């Protein structure tokens, strides 16, 4: 998502109009779009609420491995 724009991620007024065409495309084509976006370093959602509101589901992958093979938790809301 970050590579698609140069707007302020914390601003609903800027992110809403940017994301609206993606949502319209998905509904018009009756298909799913997967848009990736980073979390805060401490984990959890980052940016304007317009980002989360533009999509039907949020998938969050949290890394819980300090050493050894990668391990984590996938949460879907």
Summary, kept brief:
With 77 residues, this protein is of the alpha+beta class. It is built from 2 helices and 2 strands; from the N terminus they run H-H-E-E.
The main sheet comes to: 2 strands, antiparallel
H and E string: HHEE
List segments where confidence is low: pLDDT < 50 over at least 5 consecutive residues.
none
Number of helices: 2
Structural class: alpha+beta
Helical fraction equals 25-40%
Mean pLDDT: 84
**What Rg do the Cα atoms give?**
14 Å
Distance between the termini: 19 Å
Strand order of the largest sheet: 1-2
How many extended strands?
Answer: 2
Oligomer: single chain
Choose one word for the global shape. Answer: globular
Strand content: 5-15%
Question: Could you walk me through the main structural features you see in this protein, from its secondary elements to its overall organization?
Answer:
By secondary structure, this protein is an alpha+beta fold. The chain is 30% helix and 13% strand. The chain is built from two helices and two strands, in the order H-H-E-E. It has helices at 12-29, 49-53; strands at 59-63, 72-76. It has a two-stranded antiparallel ribbon. A hairpin with an 8-residue loop joins strand 1 and strand 2 (72-76). The chain is globular.
